[in-house]
Write a structure and sequence with these properties.
Layout: H1 9-27, H2 37-62, H3 73-100, H4 108-137, H5 146-157, H6 180-197, H7 204-224, H8 230-246, H9 250-255, H10 259-274, H11 282-296, H12 308-315, H13 317-335, H14 338-341, H15 346-387
């Protein structure tokens, strides 16, 4: 078996789904109840594809290729294209809420509190693991002035992947996945600005808050995350906006349903992902965007995306995306050792990855149940408490 063979993909996905069935039942993780079931299933596979992307990179890196996108189109796009689809999902869901809010005022306080409690608890947990790993690699000794280390930690709090205490590259511990979070936050803070284009009324405080957040994350992106092209990373958000607009037309939902549409979606993905290196070119971008619009309009791709296991996997997708790199780092650096793992055949490597898939799904089911879910459940109570503040104290309540 070659290291870039596509044969391991399906068996490892089946291993992950089987593990998800067991952990979901044990921890009471159920599919989300909502209007866009296909989207819920899609996000789980996108997160798992990023795991497979980095699994391939680890093999190549240990065999002298370096940490860069694999020469295989499929394994390369499992990284960049999966994140692009995440951006499409984000813009689709939240622009849909914006369109719905044209009939009534948008609750900006609820939106930003829920986003903070959705993203930050797990991120802080991941950062704690990163700092613990850095401490172990540093032998619990400061290799830089304390003040500099504190600044580096605060950079990570702002989603900037700085090296900490001289451990380079620190981002390898988490496979560098935090680069996408500034783009997510940039879009969240762009929502009030998009609301202005939809003739929504905004209070001055909402406008100032959104503009400040937008400018901050735009600065972070331009300063630290220009690799791959800022425009190329922003374009998928437009695809999501297009999907949110088109899904409101009943005829589009009818066209997107049925096996013929499923076949067309699969064909678009096979060509867009199999024949091209990335979405930087017009043709693959349009093909993947077309496939996403079909899924957003309700196509389940022959029932795969709406299956209960797919949707349950989607529940832990954020944990999979954020934590899989830590599992791979620990596995190859400490459990197996780089020298030993570097001598594995492709078959042995993918066997290890199958075991890692079990670990990733199990760990991420636990973090979803005990970190993500409590954070999401706490958001309504925090929002309600903030509303009880004296008039003017809640800066995000739209006037």
């Amino acid at each position: 078996m070659e290291s870039l063979s596509l044969y391991p993909i399906i068996p490892i996905i089946l291993v992950a789904l089987a593990t998800m069935k067991l952990t979901g039942a044990a921890l009471g993780i159920k599919p989300a109840e909502g209007r866009f079931a296909s989207i819920d299933g899609l996000r789980g596979y996108m997160a798992f594809f990023v795991f497979l992307h980095h699994s391939c990179i680890w093999y190549l890196a240990m065999h002298g290729y370096g940490w860069r996108p694999p020469p295989s189109n499929v394994y390369s796009q499992f990284g960049s294209t999966s994140v692009a689809v995440f951006f499409m999902i984000t813009s689709f869901l939240f622009f849909s809420r914006l369109l719905q809010a044209r009939k009534s005022d948008m609750d900006w306080l609820k939106l930003y509190v829920s986003r903070g409690f959705r993203i930050m608890p797990l991120y802080l947990f991941a950062l704690f693991i990163v700092l613990t790993t850095v401490a172990i690699l540093s032998h619990f000794t400061l290799h830089e002035p304390l003040g500099k280390v504190i600044v580096e930690i605060f950079q990570w709090m702002a989603f900037i992947k700085a090296d900490i205490n001289g451990i380079s590259p620190t981002w390898l511990i988490i496979a560098g996945v935090i680069w996408s979070l500034p783009y997510e936050w940039l879009f969240y803070f762009a929502l009030p600005l998009l609301g202005l284009l939809l003739s929504m009324r905004l209070s001055l405080l909402v406008w100032v808050f959104a503009l400040a957040g937008f400018l901050f994350f735009f600065y972070v992106i331009l300063t630290f995350y220009t690799s791959g092209g800022v425009v190329n990373h922003l374009l998928p958000f437009l695809s999501g906006i297009a999907a949110a607009t088109l899904v409101r037309f009943p005829r589009m939902r009818v066209l997107a349903s049925g096996p013929v549409a499923s076949f067309c979606i699969v064909l678009c993905l096979v060509i867009g992902v199999g024949w091209f290196k990335s979405l930087d070119e017009v043709v693959p971008f349009l093909l993947v965007s077309t496939a996403f619009i079909g899924i957003a309009c309700g196509n389940s791709v022959f029932g795969i995306l709406t299956h209960s296991l797919s949707r349950t996997l989607g529940q832990i997708s954020y944990s999979i995306y954020l934590l899989h790199g830590i599992v791979l780092f620990v596995t190859f650096n400490w459990i197996l050792g780089l020298q030993r793992a570097g001598q594995f055949s492709p078959l042995m490597h993918w066997g290890v990855i199958a075991v890692c898939a079990v670990s990733v799904v199990t760990v991420c089911s636990l973090t979803y149940r005990f970190i993500e879910r409590p954070g999401m459940d706490a958001a309504p109570a925090v929002t309600k408490k903030l509303r009880r503040q004296p008039p003017g104290a809640s800066v995000l309540k739209n006037a």
